[in-house]
Amino acid sequence: MNTIKPNPKIDVPGVTGYLLWLRQDLPAVYAHVIRAFPQVAAFDAALKKELASRGLGFSWSSIGSALSGAASSVGSVLGSVGSYVATNTPAILTTGAGLYGMVAKQQMLNSQLMLAQSGQYPMQTGIMQSSGNQPYLTGISPTGAYPSTYSPYSSGGFASGILSSTIMGVPSWIFLVAIAGGGFLLLRRR
Questions:
Q1: pLDDT tens, residue by residue, 5-63
Q2: How far is residue 15's CA from residue 67's CA, in Å, rounded to a whole number?
């Protein structure tokens, strides 16, 4: 049975929440983004200054407003940051095996970017063990600290992101249909 270990929720919406999620759940990728985008480096400097002034026992939501100014400069390059993250996130960190894993990784990253662009909270993610005992990061439906009006199935949510995302210019639903069809054919041959 697959089990999932949830990562802490990032209860800050928009660009700030996306950057905090990236820092928490994909720290190696975040480090590369800092080097590639001066706007993200400025955000990270503001974040470190804010963390140093708060000490222990703070919540992300309590510092979110203090970081909104630094995050606003990232908003102008957020699409580029999202593309950079999608191309530079190692597959082992975010996927199971094979084509399904590639599609799942791309959908999760696209959904997180779309949520940030629409000013929503980042989707909570967690670490799941694959059947081959390989850990990978996956999306979890948001609950708790998120507003009750948020739904992963609403416009701009995770499920709508699945249908509207693309992989190398091809709609991801085509890959999903191909995977399902291939699986059906394999089962039929047995």
A1: 888 888 889 999 999 999 999 998 999 999 999 999 999 998 888 888 876 666 666 66
A2: 10
- Closest-CA residue to 30 (of 48, 13, 12): 48
Helix or strand run (H / E) with residue 127: strand 124-129
Q: How far is CA 19 from each of CA 24, 106, 177, 184, rounded to the nearest angstrom?
A: 9, 17, 32, 40
Orientation of helix 38-54 relative to helix 60-75, angle to 10°: 160
Measured CA distances, 29 to 34, 43, 55, 88, 182 (Å):
9, 15, 25, 7, 33
Residue 133 Rama label (left phi>0; alpha psi -120 to 50; beta): left
How does 153-165 read in b/e, with b if 16+ C-beta sit within 10 Å? eeebbbeebbeeb
58 in the Ramachandran plot: left (φ > 0), alpha (ψ -120 to 50) or beta?
beta
Q: What confidence tens digit (pLDDT) does each residue in 149-183 have?
A: 444 444 444 444 555 555 555 555 565 556 655 55
User: How much is the pTM?
Assistant: 0.69
Please count the residues of the chain: 190
Strand partners, 166: 171
